[in-house]
Design brief:
With 258 residues, the protein is mainly α. It has 13 helices and 2 strands. Helix 7 crosses helix 8 and helix 7 packs across helix 12.
């Protein structure tokens, strides 16, 4: 990508990129020309309406074919290695029906944070990303657009989970503050829930990564943002995310700290 150096600089302290680190899998979906990331990168509501109406079944079929290729390559290099793919991208919540049909044995780890705490950060991320690819968009209009989009995405995830109680055993819900305060406790809970074996070698690698991240954060540029910059208030955000927040309360995921 021609703008790659600018992207790394622009997202420093916001969403860091590193050749040796994992990254979200949205580029696979983007290669199929039907990715929700495109609606975040550009203000193209018509494309969003088309994508919502047409669905993503074919896109996830392309995703699976690509991952099968990656798996084959890995087996050629490490035939003794039996790994499991971990996909990470918030937009998967828009297409859970297509995802579960494509990967019928998928399991889910979903992190949760109060929308009034993440919407400022999200708007800042979208604004920075668009600054490289499109004309400036008024911040208040961006705030309203992304409030509708993100609350709609989480409503779709609630709809899916409500409609598929038979899949609830495949879910682990993680409170954001629990993850920050006790990351290895969360890791152990996830492994225990899915019956995975947490090997000491893996735990040591996680602890080393955590240490390196803590050292990096002491010197890195911090991400600054505020809801008010995008014409939003905590009350307006809470109202837009009411169904999602009620879902968290009903499931016992929200805490007083949240």
């Amino acid at each position: 990508m021609l703008n790659a150096p600018k992207i790394v600089e622009l997202f420093e302290g916001v969403h860091d990129f590193n050749v040796d680190e994992p990254e979200e899998d949205f580029p696979i979906l983007r290669m199929a020309f039907a990715s929700w990331t495109t609606t975040a990168r550009f203000h193209i509501p018509e494309f969003g309406r088309w994508l919502a109406a047409s669905g993503s079944r074919n896109v996830y079929a392309f995703h699976r074919r690509t991952v099968q290729h990656f798996s084959w390559r890995r087996r050629q290099r490490q035939p003794e290695h039996q790994g499991q793919w971990v996909f990470k991208m918030p937009f998967h919540l828009m297409e859970l029906e297509a995802l579960i049909k494509t990967y019928p044995d998928a399991v889910f780890i979903q992190t949760h944070r109060e929308p009034s705490q993440f919407m400022g950060s999200w708007n800042s991320l979208v604004e920075r990303g668009r600054s490289l690819f499109s004309e400036p968009y008024p911040p208040h209009e961006l705030g309203a657009e992304q409030l509708a989009f993100m609350s709609g995405m989480l409503d779709r995830a609630v709809d899916f989970r409500t409609a598929h109680p038979e899949l609830e055993h495949r879910w682990v819900d993680v409170n954001y503050f629990e993850l920050v305060e006790d990351p290895f406790g969360v890791v152990r809970r996830i492994y225990q829930h899915f019956g995975w074996t947490l090997e000491q070698e893996a735990l040591d690698a996680m602890e080393e990564w955590q240490f390196q991240q803590a050292e990096k954060r002491r010197t890195e540029k911090r991400h600054r943002y505020a809801l008010e910059e995008y014409g939003l208030t905590p009350e307006a955000v809470n109202a837009a995310f009411k169904r999602y927040r009620d879902f968290l309360t009903t499931r016992g995921i929200r805490t007083s700290r949240s």
